[in-house]
Every structure is written in structure tokens, then in C-alpha cells.
DNA metabolism protein (Petralouisia muris), 262 residues
Amino acid sequence: MYVFVCENSIDGIFTGVYDAWASKYGHKNIRLTVCPPDTYTLFDEYITVSTDYERSGKVARTLLQRLGEETYAELCQAASALEESSKRKKYMDKADALYHTIVLALSLKDGSKVLNYLGDPFVNRVFELSRSTGNEAHHLLGFLRFQELENGLLFARIHPKNYVLPFLGEHFADRLPQENFIIYDKAHSQAALHPKGKGFFLTDASSLNEEMLNRFSPEELEYQKLWCRFFDSIAIEARINPKLQNQNIPIRFQKDVIEFTK
């Protein structure tokens, strides 16, 4: 078995797909992984994949052309999902699931229908991963809160499990084209930056000055007080139900929602 070890990112996995396909070792003899093994097996050959944006771009363009935007977006969501494992259940590596799903999709007359083949374990895993990322991104579209800093920049902080930042950046760049904003993914030390009137871009945020991010404009502080006062005034004490509230707004989102931090 030839094992291609990729970077845990969309570009890393797509580069792995390109290299694995180009190797001509035969799809049944290939496995992709984003998790280097603790113990290397004797009869497998391990090939380290260096992320290459040109090769990744070729794969992306092929998938968009052959599978369509919707299926391509599902594959990207799967590639952005948290890779999980447990003692009770060992999960299929997402890179391997994506590779074999892409192989299947490109062999079909209509590859856009590949995610309907849920009887295939690789497709099933991709569907599962894509749904996880999609659901979290959908939740954050409703729970994400922008706050105005003293310099006029709109700022939001999130702590997602999956790497949903590209999807949120694209959504809010479309919704707020004339605003300067930053969405800070503290869990992954990444940020989506959007200059007014331009597209957004992703950047490393490991050295971000967090003290600056807590300096809010006077107007922002006043609106926060007004909103929390309204939030408290409409509450009916006899009908407070923390259990239901935690179901509707998961606890891990609450630390980034103004109503729960004041």
C-alpha cells in the first residue's frame, strides 16, 4: 500500500489527490492520510506530500467543472471537518475518504450525484464530515456577533470545532461589502480579514493583539448595555429553561454571544 501523508487542509488534501492520481499506482493500492501514523507498517510505503497551490488548484478546477459548485462545496466542507477518533470507534481518515469519493465521482456519468451513493463507506464518511462542518457553519451564521472596536473595525470571535472560517468569510463579505471586518477563529489561530469594498482573505492570527480586540467604541458599549437590558426585560422568570436554552444555543457558542457574557 502506498500511503500519501498530506497537510490537514483543503489545499493539502487536494495536492495529495493530485499526487496520488498522478502516481499511477492504482487507486486500490493508495491511501491518503492527514494523520502521520505513530507506528509505520513494514510493507507500506509512505510518501510525504508538500502542499502545492498550483496542483491543488488544478484539482479544484476539475472538480468544479465535472461535479458542479454544490458537490464541490460539500467536498470542501468535508476537507475542513475536524478529524475525530476514539477508543470505541476508529474513524476513516477524511483524506482517504475524499480521495476515493473523488475517484468514484469522476467515473460516474453524472459525478454531481456522487454523494447519493451512501452505501459506499467512503462516500458515507464524506457526507458525514460535510454535514458536521455545514451544520456548524450554519449555526455560526446565526450566533456570530460583530462588535465595533474603537478604531471602527467590526470584530467577531469564534471557537469552532471545524475549520469553518472560509465559509463565514465568504458569507459576510457578500453581506457586508462596505464594512471593514475581521472574524477571529481563536481555536485555529486564523482570521478572515475583509477590507471595505474588496474580497476577504485568510491570515495567521497567532500573534494577534488580543488587548486591542477588547477596546470597544463608546457607541458599541452603549448598544451592548441596551441590548442586554432588552434581553433581560423580555425574559419571563417562570419560563426560564436553561436545558432548552443550551439545546438551542450550544454552550460552546455562548462564550462568544454578548447576551451570555454580560
About this structure: The two ends are 55 Å apart (CA to CA). The chain has two domains: 2-137, 144-261.
